[in-house]
Write a structure and sequence with these properties.
This protein is 76% helix and 0% strand. By secondary structure, it is mainly α.
């Protein structure tokens, strides 16, 4: 998350747009998305007119920020995965990154704020929600397809469905991690989450044992 935020900050500065930078600061400090446009104007030391030249409202600014973070993260993870030894290691890396970043204490309140916004976006603007998450979904789908082609993953469920189930699982777990709302009050570990995802990906049969052993060798 911090690396993605640094990239978002750099992009904002390079285009002389201080609004996203100021929004990041407010979210990090407060963990809330209910700040006003006026607060943003005061923080960025700009004008209301300038804000509306960039965005139609606060919702559009939050959407732009969220979209930038997801796109930057997915691009970085795709690059990192290319350096890993195999598909299982790549998928495990994605699971670890999504889950670990959601609970990263160095992110301040922004992880919680963006989790809340993420859930609100899914309800109020489902088309935008799907579009924003597309880079993550495409990364997971590419890895799942590769795993199926390599004989590592089950073939009785199509790749699109497997990828969607996996993404919903890890994103849902990330939300609970960021919000501190784990059922039973016990935080889900990244290792536990990966083992669950792995079981769903390999299913039953001879490939299951092979994939599980391969995963454990990489610990």
């Amino acid at each position: 998350m911090e690396r993605s935020l640094r990239n978002a900050r750099a992009k904002a500065v390079s285009r002389s747009d201080r609004f996203i930078q100021s929004a990041i600061e407010i979210l990090t400090e407060t963990g809330r998305t209910d700040f006003t446009v006026q607060e943003l104007i005061e923080r960025s030391k700009t004008s209301l007119r300038s804000f509306y030249q960039h965005f139609s409202g606060k919702e559009e600014l939050l959407l732009a920020l969220f979209e930038e973070i997801i796109a930057t993260s997915a691009a970085q993870w795709r690059s990192d995965v290319a350096e890993l030894p195999d598909t299982l290691a790549g998928l495990r890396y994605v699971v670890e990154m999504v889950h670990a970043q959601a609970g990263d204490p160095t992110g301040g309140g922004i992880n919680r704020a963006l989790s809340v916004y993420h859930l609100q976006l899914a309800e109020s603007r489902p088309a935008d929600y799907a579009r924003v998450l597309a880079p993550l979904r495409e990364l997971i789908l590419d890895l799942v397809k590769r795993g199926i082609d390599e004989g590592e993953f089950r073939e009785d469920i199509d790749a699109d469905t497997l990828a969607m189930i996996m993404m919903q699982t890890i994103v849902g777990a990330a939300h609970m991690h960021a919000l501190g709302s784990e059922p039973g009050g016990v935080a889900l570990g990244t290792e536990q989450l990966w083992e669950f995802c792995l079981g769903g990906l390999v299913g039953s049969g001879s490939s299951s044992a092979s994939a599980a052993k391969s995963s454990r060798r990489k610990r």
